[in-house]
Amino acid sequence: MTLQIDRLFGLSGKVALVTGGGRGLGKMIAEGFIAAGAARVYIASRNAAALEETAAEISGEGRCIALAADLSTVAGCKALAAEISSRETRLDMLVNNSGAAWAAPLENFPEHAWDKVFQLNLKAPFFLTAALLPLLGAAATPGDPARIVNVGSVAGEVAKSLGAYPYGLSKGALHQLTQMMAAEYAARHITANALAPGRFPSKMTKNITEDENLYAEEVAAIPLGRFGRLEDIAGAALFLTSNAGAYVTGVVLPVDGGAALNRG
Ligand SMILES: NC(=O)c1ccc[n+]([C@@H]2O[C@H](COP(=O)([O-])OP(=O)(O)OC[C@H]3O[C@@H](n4cnc5c(N)ncnc54)[C@H](OP(=O)(O)O)[C@@H]3O)[C@@H](O)[C@H]2O)c1
Q1: Measuring CA to CA, how many Å separate 238 from each of 8, 35, 49, 194, 195?
Q2: Going by C-beta distance under 8 Å and a sequence separation of 6 or more, which residues neighbour residue 257?
Q3: Are 136 and 148 in contact (CB under 8 A)?
Q4: 119-142 as b/e: b if 16+ CB within 10 A
Q5: 264 Cβ neighbours under 8 A, 6+ residues apart
Q6: Going by C-beta distance under 8 Å and a sequence separation of 6 or more, which residues neighbour residue 259?
Q7: Distance 116 CA to ligand 1 centre (A)
Q8: Hey, which residues does 16 pair with through a beta bridge?
Q9: In testing the pocket of ligand 1, which one of 29, 43, 46, 83 has its CB within 8 Å of the most ligand atoms?
Q10: What would the mean pLDDT of 219-233 be, rounded to a whole number?
């Protein structure tokens, strides 16, 4: 059989949900899915106006659909799952991407910030995935599993935290949750993998990109010598969600220019 690239990496006819798809990494991933031919890509977060703008920008044909959702509560996760379930009979790909960071000195780290970070980065992927399992199950086949992609972070793998303690801890736990999901759901033909991005330009990293010295310091610490870009994260997400990644589960894939090599 001759390999056809569009059959290997294409997402023709697929339905996806990308949380936090209105901007930053989520937008890059949603853009990749649309470019690969996905039928419908739902993007969901709190800011409905920003989501609508992104949906129109990345797909003039209405294939990208904005849904307002607040995932800071389990009720919000369940409401989003119910909304998707009212529109679709199956979900091929779920990308748990919404996330938040908070940095402060360890001695006086605010408890509410700890809770906020853990709620969005760890509890939301857990409860949203649980609520969407029936729809993922409806899409799953042995040859073409349904896909869960959790957006973790290099911060979940290394000790350097820049004061964002619960952020790194929540991402480390999300990587572990990904492996648990992979083990648990394999028999249902659902894969679960995590992306562990390094530095990408987004609102979350604005404090770095807008500070010339800090930015230079951060770039110098990345073995490949640059921040990530659209192709880097969209390509990795496409690998995990297309036929190319159908036999891959339980993996935490660094997309970090080698940053995790600086573990020590
Ligand atoms: N940028 C990096 O260098 C980097 C590196 C490693 C990992 N990551 C991870 O990549 C993911 C995306 O981050 P980003 O860099 O793109 O940052 P970002 O631009 O700040 O994006 C965060 C996203 O989360 C959404 N969000 C925040 N609170 C939410 C809530 N309560 N309910 C639903 N959605 C909510 C935001 O949308 P609304 O404001 O509309 O709710 C936004 O779309 C995160 O999980 C982050 O940890 C980023």
Answers
A1: 10, 10, 27, 12, 11
A2: 198, 199, 222, 223, 224, 225, 226, 227, 228
A3: yes
A4: bbbbbbbbbbbebbbebbeebbee
A5: none
A6: 154, 158, 198, 199, 221, 222, 223
A7: 13
A8: 41, 93
A9: 46
A10: 97
Amino acid at 226: R
- Bridge-partner residues for 15, per DSSP? 40
What pTM, to 2 d.p., does this model score? 0.98
| Cβ–Cβ under 8 Å, residues 117 and 101 | yes
Q: Which residue is closest in CA terms to ligand 1's atom 26?
A: 98
Cβ–Cβ under 8 Å, residues 181 and 152 = no
- CA of 24 from ligand 1 middle (Å) equals 7
pLDDT in tens, 29-72: 999 999 999 999 999 999 999 999 999 999 989 999 999 999 99
**pLDDT at residue 145 greater than cutoff 80:** yes
Helix (H, G, I), strand (E, B) or coil at 59: coil
Catalytic one of 42, 165, 167, 185? 167
Q: Are 255 and 184 in contact (CB under 8 A)?
A: no
Residue 23 has a CB neighbour count (10 Å cut-off) of 18
Q: Are strands 190-197 and 146-151 parallel, antiparallel or unpaired?
A: parallel
Per DSSP, helices labelled H in 144-257 are 165-185, 206-209, 212-220, 230-241
Which ligand 1 atom is at minimum distance from the Cα of 155?
Answer: 6
